[in-house]
Specification:
heterodimer, A: 264 residues, mainly alpha, 2 domains, B: mainly alpha
Chain lengths: 264, 153
């Protein structure tokens, strides 16, 4: 009987560890796919640059043929880079805690639609098309990237830290709640005025962090309409850093409170 | 040998003998000892005019002063070395606040499981907050070019 229990436990352990490993490696796999596509793109880009300069200097039919082939490979590789990047971002959203389901689903829908666009675009690039046709296809991808993809990417990148901040806010609020409950209990034994005052100070810091986070959320949609979403994204990161700073200060206060509780 | 040549030879011999013999007996002759410096200096100074003599004296006085200064500096250095060692530039020590260790007596809640759990959670949160990084380089937007439209002639 003991032997059976042991074997069963071992099988369950193996199954759980396998499931856990598969789950943990989803993002890593997506990241690995993206990096592989970047390598292919960089090689295609180099080939394209070389073929372009050869064609522009010699203007022969052979060099034109080579330029067409290189441009075709370059455009396909570029579509792959963007679609694998978006898939990796999708996986990152899944792994990030603290982002609401509505936001997640909204991002999933937009990402899936965008990935479909690039896959479709890649498949429709004519392998035997003229350079003019290829450039026309390239312009379609460029317009889509600048109007749809880039704003979406920076919106997601600026939203991901909010998930982390939400998780930290949840944890610190939970700790403050438990300390408040314990303080009510301690009140019977010792003077807790200092602890209560410190809890208020801590809560003030948390409130400031919440206010900062709230103003970030209000401003977030603007990132999709600004001319330079990259600098806007950096500005958001600075605001998130300030939020984290308030939480760090609040947590230092919590350490002091715990120390006070544990000593006479 | 003819008598003329013989006479000449005798005369030469007489002259040689006169030279080789000590002259003291014949007449007193002044011997100049050229190794004597005073005599030499005297000789050199004697040949200088008054203007040049003054210049030489002045030169001598200058050398004397320089030598005297050198001797004085050597003595002063030696005395300093003996009296006190050379001062070294040392930074002013930064005052460091020393706190007397505050003796904390553990309360009865020091072993309370709920309090210990809170302490553990606070420490974990502190660790997570300090190790948090919003700037993941893997997530950076892809660097792709769209300037593929080159001129076709």
């Amino acid at each position: 009987m003991t032997k059976k229990i042991f074997i069963f436990s071992f099988i369950v352990f193996l199954f759980l560890s396998f499931v856990y490993r598969v789950k943990a490696s989803d993002f890593d796999k997506a990241l690995s796919d993206y990096k592989a596509s970047v390598d292919i793109y960089q090689k295609a880009d180099n080939d394209y640059q070389l073929a372009r300069s050869q064609y522009l200097s010699s203007q022969t039919l052979a060099s034109q043929q080579k330029a067409q082939q290189a441009t075709y490979a370059f455009l396909k590789a570029r579509d792959d880079v963007i679609s694998t990047y978006l898939s990796m971002l999708r996986q990152k959203i899944t792994d990030t805690k603290g982002i609401g389901d509505n936001d997640k689903n909204g991002f999933y829908g937009r990402i899936d639609s965008d990935v479909s666009f690039y896959i479709d675009h890649r498949d429709k690039i004519p392998s035997a098309g003229s350079l003019t046709d290829l450039f026309s296809d390239s312009d379609k991808a460029r317009d889509h990237y600048n109007k749809i993809t880039l704003p979406l990417i920076y919106r997601i990148l600026a939203t991901l830290p909010d998930g982390t901040v939400q998780v930290f806010l949840g944890r610190i609020t939970d700790i403050i709640g438990r300390i408040s409950t314990k303080t009510s209990e301690i009140k019977k034994d010792k003077d807790t005025q200092t602890i209560e005052r410190w809890i208020i100070e801590t809560q003030n810091r948390v409130d400031r962090a919440k206010d900062k986070e709230s103003s970030i959320l209000t401003d977030l949609p603007k990132i999709e309409t600004v001319k330079d979403p990259f600098s806007s994204y950096n500005s958001f990161l600075g605001s998130y850093d300030e939020t984290i700073q308030y939480l760090k200060e609040a947590n230092i206060y919590l350490k002091e409170i715990v120390k006070n509780i544990m000593t006479n | 040998m003819n008598p003329e040549t013989e006479k000449q030879l005798n005369q030469d011999q007489i002259n040689n003998n006169t030279l080789s013999q000590s002259p003291v007996t014949n007449q007193p002759q002044q011997v100049v000892n050229i190794a004597d410096p005073t005599i030499q200096t005297k000789g050199v100074m004697g040949r200088l005019d008054s203007k040049q003599k003054k210049l030489v004296k002045l030169f001598g006085i200058l050398i004397g002063i320089i030598l005297a200064l050198l001797v004085v500096s050597v003595i002063v250095r030696a005395l300093r070395g003996v009296k006190k060692p050379a001062l070294k530039a040392t930074p002013t020590p930064t005052p460091q606040a020393t706190f007397a260790p505050v003796e904390s007596i553990p309360s009865k809640y020091a072993t309370d499981s709920a309090v210990l759990q809170i302490q553990s959670d606070v420490n974990n949160l502190d660790n997570d907050l300090n190790n948090n990084n919003f700037r993941d380089s893997n997530l950076r937007a892809p660097s792709v070019r769209f300037d593929s439209n080159f001129a076709i002639k």
